[in-house]
Amino acid sequence: MSFLSRVRLDTAAPEGLTQIRKLAAGPYAEHQILWTLWGRRPEAERDFQFRRVDGSVPTYYLLSAVPPAAESPGWVIETKPFSPRIEEGDDLAFELRANPVVTRRSPDGKSRRHDVVCDALRAQPVADEQGRADIERSAGLSWLARQGERHGFAFNPAMVRTGAYRQEQIRGGGQSREIRYSSLDYSGRLAVTDASAFLACVRNGLGKAKAFGCGLFLLRRTS
Fold first, then answer.
1. Chain-centre distance of CA 118, in angstroms?
2. How many beta carbons lie within 10 A of that of residue 33, not counting itself?
3. Which CATH number fits the domain 91-221, given the four candidates 2.40.128.630, 2.60.120.20, 3.30.70.1210, 1.10.10.10?
4. 180-205 as b/e: b if 16+ CB within 10 A
5. 165-168 contacts, C-beta under 8 A, 24 or more apart
6. What is the pLDDT of residues 129-154, one digit of tens each?
7. Confidence at 170, pLDDT banded by 50, 70, 90
8. Better-scored residue on pLDDT, 19 or 116
9. Of 89, 87, 47, 93, the residue nearest 199 (C-alpha)
10. 212 vs 27, 29, 111, CA distance in Å?
11. What one-character-per-residue DSSP string does 160-213 give?
């Protein structure tokens, strides 16, 4: 069984204000702070995924194998079992923050992952802002369509919005090199084509950079 939680920082508690200040350090600090909801060491195997929703106070949606501790100083936590009934043909509204990448073979013969937007811009350089936005959307939707073929879902591109493309560079936790990743937000509607494959994807997360808030599907029924 999995558990879906909505958690937010309690600004009325001193511990909550302390955590808000720590979050300003960036994505790696955010990842470390969320670990504390289970009282685990950061080096333990991660068995949760999350999505941050910004507002006056950050709110997090967490999908985890074990529910976060109900009594976590500085946090307000709501948790429920996650056992959706998903069937082939279901029409679902979704939100997703993903790390869309493509694997290319380098001249040295090694395979490396590349941000799909940067990869598309290298193949088709454009200088104007609208041209870049068009390529960003096209590359992002092409990546999502490929994922759908593997993971049991499909969508009409006209029914999906993209935006909030970001590139991050972080260093933390004793890392000797920078970690670089990108993210792109999607929202709209999808159709389930293989219920078993799609549910496995939802439980495991889609794509890379899950430690930094990518990959979690937020779903609701359209009717």
1. 19
2. 19
3. 3.30.70.1210
4. ebbbbbbbbebbbbbbebbbebbeeb
5. 165/117, 165/136, 165/140, 167/115, 168/27, 168/212
6. 898 999 999 999 999 999 999 999 99
7. confident
8. 116
9. 87
10. 6, 10, 23
11. EEEEEEEEEEE--TT-SS-EEEEEEEEEEEEEES-HHHHHHHHHH-SSS-GGGT
| Residue 88: pLDDT band with limits 50, 70, 90 | very high
Contacts of 135 (CB under 8 A, 6+ apart): 117, 120, 121, 124, 126
Q: Which amino acid would we find at residue 121?
A: L
Amino acid present at 22:
K
User: Do 91-221 and 2-82 have the same topology in CATH?
Assistant: yes
* H or E segment to which residue 101 belongs: strand 101-105
Question: To which residue do tokens 């970690």 refer?
Answer: 179
Question: Does pTM surpass 0.85?
Answer: yes
217 forms bridges with which residues in the sheet?
96
CATH T-level assignment (fold) for domain 2-82: Alpha-Beta Plaits (3.30.70)
